[in-house]
Amino acid sequence: MGVEICVEGLTKSFGHQVIWQDVSLTLPAGEVSVMLGPSGTGKSVFLKTLVGLLKPDRGSVKIAGRDITRLREHDLYEVRKLFGVLFQDGALFGSMNLYDNIAFPLREHTRKSESEIKRIVLEKMDMVGLIGAEGKLPGEISGGMRKRAGLARALVLDPEIILFDEPDSGLDPVRVAYLNQLIVDLNAQIDATFLIVTHDIASARQVPDNIGLLFRRELVMFGPREELLASDEPVVRQFLNGRMQGPIGMAEEKDAAQVEQELAQIDEGGPADALTPRLLPGAGIARPPRWEVIARREAERHGTGVTSA
Ligand SMILES: Nc1ncnc2c1ncn2[C@@H]1O[C@H](COP(=O)(O)OP(=O)(O)OP(=O)(O)O)[C@@H](O)[C@H]1O
User: Fold this and answer.
1) From CA 125, how far away is CA 120, in angstroms rounded?
2) pLDDT score, position 295
3) Residue whose C-alpha is closest to residue 136's, from 187, 102, 105
4) How many whole angstroms separate alpha carbon 256 and alpha carbon 35?
5) Less packed terminus of the chain by CB within 10 Å, N or C?
6) CB of 93 sitting under 6 A from ligand 1
7) How many CB atoms lie within 10 A of CB 104?
8) Measuring from atom 14 of ligand 1, which residue has the nearest CA?
9) pLDDT for the residue numbered 231
């Protein structure tokens, strides 16, 4: 079972540049959450702060009840073992084949025998569909395969929390669809707490239990998927619909009068958006028990049993 992450009043600056302030949210144990936000709003900084790679100016990050912002390096090292992180490019060592890349955390952080390591590496490679590619170098495979190899490596220490930094960047839509399915299947199988930073709205609509949005140095909203997808908050609607009209500008925020004029001109036409159906785990993979509760909640809000297929 994954662990809950409870963030309270978190603020981070670099020099005089405030990245975000007073961020509070709870990532529920075992659930999938997505963090959205325009470029440069500090999503990667947020991930790094959760894992203790960056120290916030103020606030707390409680993981399994311990505030990691106050831990000494040795204790932080222990807490970090709860995490698996999938970096944007997979962060593989270019001179090592996939097997050795994936075995690396086990050889570094455990005293397991090579035969035990082999069992675990092959199990994780099987989970991400990479069996047969053990001997390949990262430079010899596609971007999608590199992501999956990075994911297998993030899984070998059986993490309670997995952070994904733009897992879909640089992938074609079909590979993104496969990766999303893999993420949903993995969550159902290992029950860890997932946080995904992405720019891909289609993924954000289908995959998570919860969605958050960072903008103007603040967390505009964080809550259940169906709540954000139905929100009238202009920033949320603009972002989820990928529109130019609204508070988010090309480089900076726009002035209030311009935003008001643009919003007045939007004709959304037709009935309010139907709730995008949730991506279900693949055949043979049991749905986590929480899905029943979520399906009921979504059906109540949207009037149909869209998620209980
Ligand atoms: N170590 C650092 N020192 C100083 N400034 C930093 C550091 N790391 C990040 N920043 C600044 O923090 C801001 C937010 O960066 P971050 O990469 O978290 O944004 P992001 O929302 O992930 O962007 P994108 O969606 O484009 O990946 C940027 O202005 C960046 O320059």
Assistant:
1) 9
2) 80
3) 102
4) 25
5) C
6) no
7) 17
8) 42
9) 84
pLDDT, tens digit (0-9, with 9 covering 90-100), for 92-135: 899 999 999 999 999 988 899 999 999 999 999 988 889 999 99
pLDDT bracket for residue 309 (50, 70, 90): very low
11, 13, 14: which to mutate for ligand 1, most atoms within 8 A of CB?
14
> Is the Cβ–Cβ distance between 216 and 42 less than 8 Å?
no
Token match 């975000």: residue? 20
DSSP string, 165-229: ESTTTT--HHHHHHHHHHHHHHHHHH--EEEEE---HHHHHHS-SEEEEEETTEEEEEEEHHHHH
Pairing type for strands 32-36 and 83-86 reads: unpaired
Give the residue among 51, 3, 59, 12 at the shortest CA–CA distance from 31.
3
Residue with tokens 């992501």: 147
Question: Domains plus CATH for the chain?
Answer: 5-224 (3.40.50.300)
pTM of the model: 0.87
Summarised one tens digit per residue, pLDDT across range 1-11 is 689 999 999 99
Q: What is the pLDDT of residue 307?
A: 41
- Taking the CA atoms of 123, 128, 131 and 132 in sequence, report the sign of the dihedral they define: negative
Structure confidence at residue 305 as a pLDDT band (50, 70, 90): very low
- Report whether residue 49 contacts ligand 1, using a CB cutoff of 6 Å: no
